[in-house]
Write a structure and sequence with these properties.
3-stranded parallel sheet, two-stranded antiparallel ribbon
Length: 130
């Protein structure tokens, strides 16, 4: 929080939203790394986690197994939102790895379509584009 606390304040983040994981993959692994990161950031910042806000609407192939060209199409329309109640104006998306940005872009599109004004993101690592 020493490094990014001021940035979160500047962005006026109201909710931390982990990228939902493919059900099969989550079952195999036993946890979602993005949720673990989001929970810890919430503890440190006091910003609530909203695991209910972003929904994975379809199962997709693992991005790391696809060519760059196939990755974008793989995630199109893969996320939707729950729009019951008030949506936060600004959210912080959390994912474990950033390679091409397609996952974050599709998640942000779904949130913005539902009425979220700003979607920022944090990730723990950056992967090489294959």
């Amino acid at each position: 929080m020493r490094r990014y606390g001021k940035l979160l304040e500047k962005w006026e983040i109201e909710a931390i939203v982990p990228i939902p994981m493919n059900r099969k993959k989550k079952h195999q692994r036993g946890f979602n790394q993005a949720e673990v990161l989001a929970d810890r950031l919430s503890e440190l910042s006091g910003i609530p986690v909203r695991k209910d806000l972003l929904i994975r609407t379809r199962q997709t192939e693992a991005q790391k197994t696809l060519s760059r060209n196939k990755r974008k199409g793989n995630l199109e329309r893969s996320f939707s939102t729950k729009t019951e109640g008030r949506l936060p104006d600004s959210v912080l998306l959390i994912d474990d790895i950033y390679t091409t940005g397609n996952t974050i872009n599709e998640a942000a599109k779904a949130l913005k379509k539902a009425g979220v004004r700003n979607a920022f993101f944090f990730t723990i690592s950056v992967g090489q584009d294959i």
